[in-house]
Design a protein that fits this description.
Blueprint: H1 6-21, E1 31-33, E2 40-44, E3 47-57, H2 69-85, E4 90-101, H3 107-123, E5 127-135, E6 140-149, E7 164-168, H4 173-184, H5 192-202, H6 208-214, E8 220-223, H7 228-239, E9 242-246, H8 254-259, H9 263-272, E10 279-283, H10 288-294, E11 298-305, E12 310-314, E13 317-319
Parallel strand pairs: 4-5, 9-12
Antiparallel strand pairs: 1-2, 2-3, 3-6, 4-6, 7-10, 7-11, 8-10, 9-11, 12-13
Helix pairs in contact: 2-3, 2-6, 4-5
Length: 329
């Protein structure tokens, strides 16, 4: 058998390899959601526990000169809470923080980084329960969050034929913000709309409140950490379904429209620009109005079907869409 490298199989392919390697864990009756979803959920006595982990690596997820240490600390917590939100009505309780730091990192930087951790944890009434700090060539932040839940968690694999595909808020802002940072770095006086896009990249907010409000009406759920295109792909493939996506319905912010005026650029950011951390979900059509009442910022962008392929339409015409977003491998 040919020994493939991880670049050739990609991040999701690598996850599939790992899932197969630990397939026997499915026999554990305490496991509710195993490897491959936004969180790992299990029963322990009378407790229902959900655990998530995410990492931020310098020069992969951020550049030190583009973000304040406090914003970096807040972001590290928010992106993990986003994974908790992607499991439905789960309450984040404890955070464990792993840090890799270059030896010449300043004490002030670390203090401000922990100010960010604390601010975000206080927001969600979470306790920092510990962690680890090691020497590293570049700043590495690894956060684990432990949450508790009472209602059932919402998996990626339960979409049904005819379900509507819904999203919260707008898409493409964070990806556009990154492009501005790569183009101008800090040598530019950003206007209000440009600053909004950059703030969506550097200071994202998890949609935990929204997830709690609507989770009981959802059939499947994930967050858009890797982009809207990837999120739709995850929900359909995990549910063994297909979908029609109506690109005209994908919500774009006024700021993105003002800064990047071309429709094609706006749509590329919306589909492939990662780190929006919005919810992407499916729900029966009968619940659509109720969800909009609970969370007015919801938009419906498509419908689940049995085709096992995702087709994109713009102005009623089918579009050829090829993935052009970021890949780790």
């Amino acid at each position: 058998m040919k020994n493939k490298n991880i670049f050739s199989i990609g991040e999701l392919g690598l996850i599939d390899v790992i899932k197969k390697q630990f397939a026997t864990s499915k026999n554990n009756k305490n496991i509710v959601v195993g490897i491959g979803d936004d969180g790992f959920c299990f029963k322990s006595g009378k407790n229902n526990i959900c655990i998530t982990k995410d990492m931020l690596i310098e020069d992969v997820h951020f550049k030190k000169k583009w973000i304040t240490p406090q914003n970096l600390g807040e972001k590290a917590i928010e992106v993990n809470v986003s994974d908790i939100a992607a499991m439905g009505n789960v309450k984040p309780e404890y955070a464990l923080i792993g840090l890799g730091l270059p030896p010449k990192t300043s004490e002030v930087f670390v203090k401000n980084l922990f100010n960010g951790f604390k601010k975000a944890c206080d927001k969600y009434k979470m306790i920092v329960a510990g962690g680890d700090i090691v020497k590293s060539d570049k700043i590495t932040i690894s956060v684990t969050i432990v949450g508790l839940y009472k209602e059932k968690v919402i998996k990626r694999n339960s979409a049904n034929n005819g379900d509507l595909i819904g999203v919260t808020n707008t898409f493409g802002d964070a990806g556009a913000g990154v492009m501005l940072l790569y183009k101008y770095e800090t040598k530019h006086k950003y206007n209000k709309d440009e600053y909004f896009l950059i703030s969506k990249q550097n200071n994202p907010k998890a949609r935990l409140r929204e997830a709690r409000k609507i989770s009981k009406y959802l059939t499947s759920l994930t967050d858009a950490s890797d982009g809207l295109y990837t999120s739709v792909d995850l929900l359909t493939k995990n549910s063994d379904k297909g979908a029609e996506i109506y690109m005209d319905n994908i919500p774009i912010s006024p700021s993105l429209k003002k800064v990047f005026k071309e429709d094609k650029k706006q749509m590329n950011f919306a589909l492939f620009g990662a780190e929006d951390y919005e919810l992407v979900f499916t729900t029966p059509k009968s619940k659509a109005k109720l969800l909009k009442k609970l969370v007015p910022e919801i938009s419906y962008i498509g419908r689940i079907n049995s085709s096992k392929k995702v087709e994109y339409f713009y102005n009623g015409k089918k579009q050829k869409i090829k993935y052009t977003g970021f890949r780790h491998f």
